[in-house]
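Notebook p. 47: complex prediction with adenosine-5'-diphosphate.
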Amino acid sequence: MSISSRPQRGRAGGAVRSSHYSRSASSRRHGASGARTQGRPTHHGGARTRSRGGYNSSRRAQGRPQQRGRRKDAPIDISRFINENVAPNATPDVYEPIHTFSDFALLPQLAQAVAHKGYVTPTPIQDKTIPHILRGCDIVGLANTGSGKTAAFLIPLIQKLLLVPDEQILVLAPTRELALQIEEEFVGLTRSLRLHSVVLVGGMPIGPQMRRLRSHNHLIVGTPGRVMDLMERRSLSLAHTKTVVLDEADRMLDMGFIGDMRTILATMSQSRHTLFFSATLSKEIEKLVHEFLCDPVTVSVRTRDTSKNVHQSVIKVNGRDKVDILHELLVQKDFGKVIVFGRTKHGVEKLSRLLSKRGIKSESIHGNKTHNQRVRSLEAFKRGRAQALIATDVAARGLDIPNVSHVINFDLPGTHDDYIHRIGRTGRADKSGFAITLVD
Ligand code: ADP
Ligand code: MG
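Predicted complex, structure tokens below:
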């Protein structure tokens, strides 16, 4: 997956540059004038020049899980952070689903729950995977973020739980927030179905999780670290768990969870049902598929780049104070719901405080915060009580926050994959979004 569009020469520079900042023509002009006097958005050529210097990805993203793992070492080419020739209102690729939810022969109570959730038409990944999952096939599902993967596995697995109530399903996810989001979707889809679930994630006291594990849970959602921990304490046994979902498997691999994943899967039945979801398909991911799945059906609905909905540009810092540049952006019209990515936990916290002092309502999210603090920050941002969410890469993948207007890379991401995941927080659900990267 790459940012396909090349910077286009020959377009009117002013119009192109100004359009980084906002959606409407009038605010575009406003944005342009503001930006030019400050951190100048670079011209395409400028970005190319800069890119020769490259950027080494050995800088690590912060957060506990990242520290466990390795990062890819490909240098970053900053010209790939620009796609100004993409018209935000370009006609979206239209996918014609083959099925409706009623074609899946879901049990009436489940069909009702799906309808109640407001899902009328299956998303492409749901359309193509649900029939296979219902038949019990192993699946490799490749789809962009925001494409409805969670319900793609939850709906058929809930059907399985309703048919075989002794079943227990394990979902492994890379981050606590994702695990919580998955459980939230499960709860939303199983109201009045009497199915129980538990979330096993770090950053929360382990005692209550141990207690919850004494009774039967139909769904266990957890991060590999905490799941391992509970297995080692003998609170959790997966000997009878015959279904496992590896969600965002590429991210788990990046975060160094591969050892934990292997150990966890090894304790499960050989004849298990394994579902594997990933946004990317690298050689390493293929190896994992081979190792963990049995004769899987591969479904890819990566019909378009996640980044196609996102208007991407860079601003050259030119020795100015980056906080000033950020501040000047945030006070502009249309910067209503902005995620700002920083590199370190400390830097993110400091930036959030600085912005708050300057009167910009900001929240921060990073690995040094307790779980409850992270949930509170996220809620404040989701509900519009904060304009800016300052985050480390922990927030880059999977999180589904509606209507994020802009993603700003205050610090460069470590890899292009991280870049794609960061900017994927905006431009979701066929809306357009804006990504701005500050470069030295
Ligand atoms: P992914 O895991 O692919 O990143 P999510 O599962 O988080 O995507 O889903 C993204 C959003 O789409 C969520 O807000 C979810 O409620 C919504 N969604 C999922 N399936 C459907 C559907 N069939 N119809 C409408 N909205 C859906
Ligand atoms: Mg997901």
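Notes: Residues 119, 122-123, 126, 143, 145-151, 398, 400 surround adenosine-5'-diphosphate (ligand 1) (CB under 6 Å). Residues 21-79+95-300 form a domain with the Rossmann fold fold (CATH 3.40.50.300).
Next step: compare against the earlier run before touching the bench.
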